[in-house]
Fold Pectinesterase inhibitor domain-containing protein.
Amino acid sequence: MESPLGSALTLFFAGYLFFFLSSPSPANASAQLVDGVCQKSINNTECMEVLHSDPRVKSASTYILLAQVALDLAIGNAKDSQAFINNLLKSDPTEPIKQCASSYGLVVASFQSAKVEIYEDPLTANYDVKIAGDDAGNCETALNSKGVKYPELSARNHVVLLYSSIGDVITGQID
């Protein structure tokens, strides 16, 4: 016959095993976070593609960890777009392209600032992420106001707006 202590230990370990097996794994927690974020972003499908393009997302089990990855992606994209615009400026130094070059300096700075702020002041990080999208919108407005058509640049503006939306959702969840 089992002692009361033995029965208690058996129940404890059975409960622990149930908790351990029923708790979400880090990958499952990450998938739930990403799914929730992308459903609230401006484009669920594009959001999923962007976030799942980085293998670090699989281990991002908190909003702060997911914000780090998303903002790294956003910064990399913004810097690449800034270089594209600076090269374009050499062959087309028109006012709309100059405005876009200026706007993308601000886009990069806003995403970089947001990454620093996610730890110290998530509300400011959220604001910075939104401003980055506004700056890309300013570039698109400058192009449209002068009838300038650069589909690749417009596509880049759209991607910044996507990153801004993703960052807005994520940073809005950080306590």
User: Anything to note?
Assistant: Residues 4-24 have pLDDT under 50 and may be disordered. The helical segments are 4-22, 26-40, 44-52, 63-91, 95-120, 122-145, 151-171. The domain at 26-171 is CATH 1.20.140.40 (Butyryl-CoA Dehydrogenase, subunit A; domain 3). The two ends are 51 Å apart (CA to CA).
